[in-house]
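In the laboratory, one determines a bound structure by crystallizing the protein with its ligand and collecting diffraction data. In a computational setting the workflow is compressed into a single prediction: the sequence and the ligand go in, and a structural description comes out. We illustrate the idea with zinc ion.
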Amino acid sequence: MAMAFLRTMFTKKMNDEKNILWDVFTAKSEYSAAEKDEYGRVSSKFTSNKELLYPVVSKYLHKSGFQPTYPGNRKFAVCLTHDVDLLAKYDPNYRYVPHSFENKVRHTAKKILGIKEPVQLNPDWRLEKMISLDKKYNATATYFFLALKKNEKDFNYELEQIKYLFPLLVNSGCEIGLHGSHEAYRNLSGMIREKNTLQEIAKTKIAGYRNHFLRFSIPETWSHLASAGFVYDTTFGFADHIGFRNGMCYPFSPFNVKTGNFFDLLELPLVIMDVSLFHYMRFSYRDALEQCCRLIDEVESCRGVLTFLWHNNYVTGEMGEFYESILKYVYNKNGWMTSAIDLVKWWREKQYSQLMQELLHTLKQ
Ligand SMILES: [Zn+2]
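The predicted complex, in structure-token form:
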């Protein structure tokens, strides 16, 4: 009798834990999150996942037998990504209506004659620096480009005028992805238009996506991304907190709580963004490094993938040194530092999504 009671209690406890993990994985609490910031983002304060610094769902899957491997028998991977928000110095001809009479005349004359000023690239933000720094540590990366028009919010460069960069990136083994504009996350036609623009100018197939400012709406953005033909997204992380938004450090197909189906898309959850460390969480360099190393160790312990976002405009000075210390740490641990598309290809080749979905079903009661 007592044994039967204990067995029932144990089973109930196990089932409760599974329910919690399933809810964390699906980010169920975010569907109804009323509190959003000025960019429509859910704050980390309003998630039911209270263990943001531990990949709780991945740990469960790993314990249940999920053991991914990586090329060269490596134990874990870092998906290296660079969002290209800024490339050019302030240029009054592009960004603002010039105030002085002389400027106004020059501006109007150039407009009438169709003369385009070349973008003045800031030498400190040049992608060549980033490419060679990553290369030093045997890493390749994904570069996400904005496809903005001059009058759009945060416009800084024209794709046409930086197109010499695209073959440079591709020939270095890097990937080009779309950095969706402010509103693209909730505007399917805008998202498709931006994808086509980048595809045409970069002359390469665009498979990956990250929205500017990590703006994202669950589940609409995943739905739009799948409809727009993206293979993967890597926006899904909290802007105001590092860690594992839905307890995952494996690429996964998101589950739509509203329809009960998995999306035909891979999500590479974003774990660390530079701005989260220093702007939102206000870490010192020392504390930030400690936190990053701890998260890398967590990911290594369940043979996972840590997606890392470092903006190209932080490649010099103290921020550049900090970035290099992360590269060094992963390099010394023999982690695979690569682009998102290389990880997605590997994940597909090994059929890890299918394997993982079977295990995830055991969480679903
Ligand atoms: Zn951005």
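The longest helix spans residues 2-26. Keep in mind that any predicted model is a hypothesis to be tested, not a measurement.
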